Amino acid sequence: MQDSVFKQIKSIQFGVLSPKEIKKVAAAKVVTPELYDKEGYPVDGGLMDIRLGVIDPGLRCKTCGYKLKECPGHFGYIELARPIIHIHFVAMVLNILRCSCRECGRILLSQDKIDLYKEQLDALEEENGIEARRDYIKSILSSLKTTMKCPHCTARQQKIALEKPTTYMENEKRISPIEIRTRLEKINDDDCIVFGINPKVMRPEWIVLTLLSIPPVTMRPSITLESGERSEDDLTHKLGDIVRINQRLFENINAGAPEIIIEDLWDLLQYHVTTFFDNAVAQLPPARHRSGQPLKTISERIKSKEGRIRHNLAGKRTNFSARTVISPDPMIELNEVGVPKEIAMKLTVPERVTEWNMEYLKKFVEKGAKEYPGANYIIRPDGKKKKITEETQEQLLEEVQPGYLVERHLLDGDVALFNRQPSLHRMSMMCHKVRVLPGRTFRISPAVCHPYNADFDGDEMNLHIPQTEEARSEAEILMQVQTQLISPRYGLSVMGCMQDSIGGLYILTKEIESLTKGEAIDLLYGAEITDTSRVPDKKVLTGKDVFSAILPADFNYEGSAKSGAEEDHVIIKNGILEQGVIDSANMGSGKGFLLRNIRKKYGADYTLGFLGNSLRLGIQVLLKKGFSAKSADEDMPKEANDQIKKIIDESYVKADELIAVFRENKLETFPGKTQAETMELKMLELLNKARNETGKIVSQYANKKTATMKMVLSGARGNLINLAQMAACVGQQALRGSRINKGYKDRTLSCFDKDDIRPDARGFIANSFKSGMKPHELFFMSMTGRDSLMDTALRTPKSGYLYRRLANALQDVKVEYDGTVREASGKIIQFEYGEDGIDVSRSEGGRIDVKRIVNKVIGE
Amino acid sequence: MAKEAKLSKFDVSKHTLVPKHTKLSESEKKTLLKKYNITVKELPKILINDPAIIRFDPKVNDVIKIERGSHTARSSVFYRGVVNA
């Protein structure tokens, strides 16, 4: 056990254990159903025989001599009084019986055909893999079932049926497992190959059990209850039944009991062995505990979601992790995560005691597990873990010395990994610094919502605490939030200001014209910006001056604003915002050119701080100024309403004209379209145009000073279409790309005439949300609303799975050092990454501006 | 055979959507394989009966050079190893 041997697995061979092998791997033969003697010591030849391994502390295994936890356990065996069919091979036995001769044991195929099939099978496997071979074997065997004459000895074959679960009938007569076994023995090795059996690793007759392998006690340990009573594992119970019936069967056979009794016992033994392997066989009542709860036998241990594979092997769980609801906190930095104190006292970081930090670490032990910041465990150099409790605390405090590990509570600044599912890209799991806060939720800066795709409507996220120095430094260097700032997808910052802070910055830089220096510094301090050295010493300051104060002093930048207007164009010279407004085009997530430029010049760490500062500044402006949107924001002057009405009326007239032309069949059809289709297309175009025109009127007349418009213009929330729908006209409702044409026969609703194809009758909503919709308009709206709701609900899992498959298929594709893109086996996929070899995250929109680099080098 | 004769009437290589295919000479092939430290197996594949290369009378393990337009880098070069159909 001590010196382990390392070997590489080259291949795995599956086969069936032969009786010989069962005997060979067995450490003991089980002959008695008794488990323990009067002293509670395992009986020799019982199911808990200590040759099969030990589960009691203090005992030594008779086979290997090791103690509990050292001994891996050893198999045993039972000699079955009569052969038993293995339930999981029932189908195979049936196949072989049906397809082999009952007299000579040959497969019901002529020798030529056997040779031919063997060749074909090998060729098929070579070409299409083992699956294809299996499929072909299946088809060969199913074609053989109807063969009634043996091609070798010309014996007539009988019909063989399976009476589920384990009885085989030949012409209404039962074939006993003994008979089955002798028939299987007659199959020759050559024919086995056509049956899909590799004769080197299994013989057909081994399917019929004569010996039963007994699993070691270590895989079916008994539990000692508090009352001192022993409770055995389900498998042990089942094995007990098997041994008991087996003994009875032996005795009856030896005593020469009548055939009926023997057969009854034999069937009972078959039942017990079957349920030992699988307790969920369709035709059999499951074996139960006395309480009526079904036993969990071998198959149930492996199978299904709660089985060994999916639950224990594929479904690993992590220690040192936490999960709770997230909520926003703009006052913490972007690379921080607010951790509830409750969680901070559960999760720990191991720290090694040295003579230099001993006093520091002893303080944690002194506080114990119940007081923050304390420690939960200490680990001795030999690996023994000791929990710090009120009783052990003082003694452990004395004990701590260099070489010990102290598992102390989380502290501010500890490294943590933070993750939100679905983890679709690398920004879904980033490294944050811990910030212990009161409350019961994780707190994150609203700016990092975008990379996680998180919101605060009840989202939960996971936190992991790296436990080794390597893991911590790896996380910090590779995964920290600032290292993920620039997205490898489009080369822009994935993090940026959101919603209120965009609105705040917009108001600050566009509207605020006069501030006293005191007010300006108030704003900055409110945003926790304490460096006010760059606030100009003027009597009257503008919002632009305040924003400039958080810019680096030697920063130059030029970029267009969202509106594209000349006066909004952003010009920053020497760290002063000389002109323009800061809006979503400059600071938004996934858009911020300003952020990209700052990162390029001052690095990721600085950008992170800058982003945090501007986020808080924007919010602070809104806090100080107040910001409320109201319904009256969407009110239009009479003039505008008249124009909107005119546009809609005109489009109704045009629609009627179109319908008139269509009714006369005089419409000029589009290529490949019928008259009706052309009419529909023209109608859609017409009505959409009308809606867009009303939208233009709205943006023209809308008061830019209202809060709603400010949100739209700054890019904080909402767009012009939303506004137009509220103020002017909701527009055409479309189902699957066409106007609504479902409902009654030839009409959408019973309030319309048949074949009415005017706009109103087919889902055009002329009213606005503000003016209120007519009943039929509301109905149409509900139709499309429900449709899109269903659509998103059904599409999200589908596209999610699609993406998952793609990501898994591409997971080990990487760019090699020679610039080629290769998969894991070294096959080339692209000769140069992206055909141009440019890393999007390290270029500007996938391009490298050589001119600018040259200018920069020679210009300065 | 009849099928092949029919195919040869239309020269796909003249079509605008078919990028330029050329067969590498043995020495070119050698330098290419050496450059990437690979064998023909690691190259992307092209079928021996691909209409675009049929006029070279290709053999298995020949390497075909393909020059084609690219969205990112105006034009790009690609190599494919000939495999049996």
Spell out the blueprint of helices and strands.
The complex is a heterodimer of chains A (860) and B (85).
Chain A: H1 19-25, E1 26-29, E2 75-85, H2 90-99, H3 111-144, E3 160-163, E4 167-170, E5 173-175, H4 177-186, H5 189-194, E6 208-214, E7 223-224, E8 230-231, H6 234-255, H7 259-277, H8 298-302, H9 308-313, E9 321-328, E10 336-340, H10 341-344, E11 348-352, H11 358-367, E12 375-379, E13 385-387, H12 393-399, E14 405-409, E15 415-419, E16 429-437, E17 442-444, H13 449-452, E18 460-464, H14 469-479, H15 499-510, H16 517-526, H17 543-548, E19 557-559, E20 570-573, E21 576-579, H18 584-587, H19 593-625, H20 638-663, H21 675-701, H22 707-714, H23 720-727, E22 731-732, E23 734-735, E24 738-739, E25 764-765, H24 775-809, E26 814-815, E27 821-822, E28 828-830, H25 850-859
Parallel strand pairs in A: 1-2, 9-17, 10-16
Antiparallel strand pairs in A: 2-6, 3-4, 4-5, 7-8, 9-18, 11-14, 12-13, 12-14, 15-16, 15-18, 19-20, 20-21, 22-25, 23-24, 26-27, 27-28
Chain B: H1 2-8, E1 20-23, H2 26-36, E2 45-47, E3 63-69, E4 75-83
Parallel strand pairs in B: 2-4
Antiparallel strand pairs in B: 1-3, 3-4
